Amino acid sequence: MNTDATIVPAEFPQLRALAWSRDISRPIPAEEAFALYERNWRFVDQKHLTVREKQLIQELANKFGHGVLLTT
Tens digit of pLDDT for each residue in 54-64? Predict the structure, then answer.
């Protein structure tokens, strides 16, 4: 995934849940997606993360969080 691109929340189940107040079919900047995951990690059902979404989160953390996703 090109983390400079936009991400469609509807394509990632947990991101879709975090973006409940938005149009989930509207692409958002990758950095905004990272911020949503980081700010709302307590609401992410980690047991139901797909492999694709785990990969996305890691790529976003590498790009915008210097390899770290702050979850506390």
Answer: 999 999 999 99
